[in-house]
Amino acid sequence: MKNYLKVGQIINTHGVKGEVKVYPLTDDVKRFNKLKFVFIKDKDAYTKVNVEGVKYFKNLVILKLEGINNMTEAEKYKKVYLYVDRENAVKLEEDAYFIADLIGLDVYTLEGEYLGKITDVFSTGSNDVYEIKNDDNSLLIPAIKDVIKQVDLNNSIMKINLLEGLR
């Protein structure tokens, strides 16, 4: 499991005082209200940056980050991802998972047939859909209890009941 989870991407500057526009990568955009700090990744290191202010504009989050005090400084952070550490991530309900933890899981049927790896997760409104790929093909599997039977993050395995018509 990853120690850091993406919560947004800086897409542009906002104003002249160093605020940045963030495209949220989280289901609950209001979670930014609770963030005291975020992490910015530079190569292999994560740097902690305090959040000084949060506003919302259309589907974006406007953040004021400590140490970024003008538009020129903010420009340097365009396209940079923002992360939270797992310890400060939103607490999930039972049988709910972070997308970052699902990507890369090996998927097997209950009978033991290897189907491939989860390569993407799509939010459709009613339920998520997992894209499973192997060398030969791709499957789209609904994330519902009738299909998803076991998720073992420690061993990177998901077992599913492959209902008729899903292949």
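Above is the first protein from milestone M3; the second protein from the same milestone is given next.
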Amino acid sequence: MTKNYVLGLLAVASLAACSKKDDNNTTPPPSNNSDTVYVRGKISASQTWSKNKVYKLRGYVYVDAPAVLTVEAGTQIISTRDSAGVLVVYKGAQINANGTADNPIVFTSGHTDKKPGDLGGIILVGSATGNGNHAVIEGGVDGDHKAFGGTNDADNSGTMQYVRIEYAGKAVSQDDEVNGLSLYTVGNKTTLHHIQVVNGLDDAFEFFGGTVNAKYLIAYNTADDDFDMDDAYKGMIQFAVSVKQPSFTDPKGASGDVSNNFEVDNTNPANKPITTTPTTFPVLSNFTAIGPNNATGTSAAYGYGARWRRGCQFILGNSIIMGSQKEAMRVDDNVTMGFYNDGTSGVKNSLLHSSSANVFSTANSGAAVLLTVDQLSALVTGRDATQVFLAANAGDIKLKDPFNNKTPDLAPQTGSPALAGAKFEGKLADAFFDKVAYRGAIDPANDWTKAKWVAWDRVVVTQ
């Protein structure tokens, strides 16, 4: 196979391919006469990556304004664990990664023995609003690409559709990581749909502020949180799946952090007060979140179905949470509980199950909780019309095969309460949301997770 190194212009004078100097050079468009294209450094002029080539990321690759990186349907982008390539599409630049249902774009490991962390991940950086919780971008990016945020909530970072991101995750240090897809203050003119993150070493999707909306997302067997939101993220998401592999987590040790299907914060109090505004407020509908359900070999680091904390606001509607190792719903502080108590936040018209003895838990540091477990339960099941299923009763939700981790079937069976009962009121009435009758991510008449672009039954996750 022919190989072509896409290096900076100054690399003509020096072939020290792995030097820091080369990494800071400008990357020209790839040659037309190569099968494998090695990419590193900066892309400052628009270029197209062809499905007829394989692109190998070496370290951090930065797409800088005004460049547009176009990726053809069917293109494969790989990385190896010695460099854990990270693609950063920075403010003012765009990515147009337009895969199709039959020809997805795949970011993956270049090894035969694929492992989480072989690929660093993808980072999109926009100019929408945040609240400054994170001062700089995580994950070891260089000094020219650390800043994020702005005032343009309609910012456009491009399009990603029918894209699969496999074996990603890069930890520089604890809490300084690259996720499968990291979204830093990305604006709502950006298009995201039909994206799967598979076997990631950290979070699948993390939203650091911004207003970007998304549909048809899958997080499959990632080690930390599947949907992590903070820094005043205010977007809308519909039709999303989270499936946890029982033995694969990101243990946090003494920090007390755990791996969850959802983790939603406003700020980290070590960075800014949790009452900082603007406030994290995602509006979410038609999620199906599957935990390990206390299967044999389940890691002790597994946590909650949904962990709402640190002053966030939220709406989760028409969704299913099943098999959480701890409670299906955890609210961690009185500020967050206050938003639930006054009706700002809600888990509405949903189905909740946990393998734990309790479906709900609350906690607050330094003072009595604003809402006891019984009080929270009364609000969720009464005012918000959500149904609760105790540990032994997961089968009553009647999904076809939700705990088959290799090939999960998340569609509702005949007689399932998920076949009907969805409501779109309040913020869920927004035109962004498709007003379907069913609850959960899967249309019983058309299971989109069975399409060719989706990958189940991947190599057993190992670190």
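Note on the second protein: Residues 3-450 form one domain.
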